[in-house]
């Protein structure tokens, strides 16, 4: 068999390479120097590969945001054509803010902050720019080019064309990075390195792992014996604690919708319970328009730039409007939206950029922010007025006006009676026996609270349980009660669990009618 030695051609240099060197040069020293050079070039190549991959990720995120900005600009093109009164720069800034707010920020800046670079990549850049800062620089560059052109074409159209050129430039750069990356990866794969070698199945390692496991178990058993602690092992440990109830009677209570013996996790986090933190409430006390104080506060407490704090201030504004404090409500809206805008711009530089632009006279940033504050406060004011009007019309409380399902007889001379299916079927006919079994299964499928209400034989108790259910659930329960034959229009209550109830049930089944109706 012919041995193929071609795979060794990929070796750059080995310690026993048969090479010719100058007689005055030591061969071993020459080989070590050559190896050091090869290792250095290899590390540089790998560093370039990591850098190019990271730059492509950043450019992909920037391209996505440019696309969003172009989409937002084209959506405002109709307003610009209609001459709504807004300047071109104002429409551009508004579209930019809308495109950035679509990218919802998550943890540590989320979508506004590029991913963390790999180790050794871009370490010379201390303050790495965020995506909003990149977009702001790109927009400023496009505006500068438009000002230098001095073209008679509409400024809005020129801005769209300028952004499309920037997008093409980024895509062209991506193509160049991809070609360079493919070249470097091809060169990397062309050579055999120790990183490409991996150890297969090793019996000694497996055996060593087993020995370590045995030693660990032996040490654990010895330590347990040394402690001399007495432990009690339960053969049948309870899987769940018994439910605690405040009412030991047959009242259905609040446990009508839960299974007996289980406790729902009612103490979990409630996302609807949003309140402003003390830090946010302190920020809300800063007078609107005092930009210097707001900026200093945000620089000292950057942790306040979170979505939860914005929502908390808006909830505080809504509650203040309900309490008849419109001035405080508007102040909370102003400060809450200020946090939102600064958070969307991201980072310390983004906050400083926002405050710089909003303090510039006649800048579109200030007008857009104030319009947003007015519209948000207007919605809160309208909704609060509606709630106050509803409370005035329904002063009975929160329960007033809630739709419920209740059982009542249409004829005042009749009464809805409750019949509880027996635990064991008593009928001899196979069909009737099957009907009793199905009725009992329906009864046992009800929550414990509803079962106790039915066993009490009191219609009021059943209605209490139905009142705690939603309309759909209550309708389903009433339908099952009818299917199981547990409701009937007649005087008295039939309890099939007693001898008298069984006698009456047998008479009903025999005559196919209630005892008073057979006449």
From TrEMBL:
What keywords sit in the KW lines? Answer: Chaperone, Coiled coil, Cytoplasm
This protein is called: Hsp90 chaperone protein kinase-targeting subunit
Where would I find the Cdc37 C-terminal domain in this sequence? Answer: 416-519
GO CC terms: cytoplasm; nucleus
- The source organism is Bipolaris oryzae ATCC 44560
What does the similarity note say? Belongs to the CDC37 family.
The answer, when asked if Coiled coil is one of the entry's keywords, is yes
- Enumerate the spans annotated as Cdc37 Hsp90 binding domain: 208-399
Q: Name one GO biological process term.
A: protein stabilization
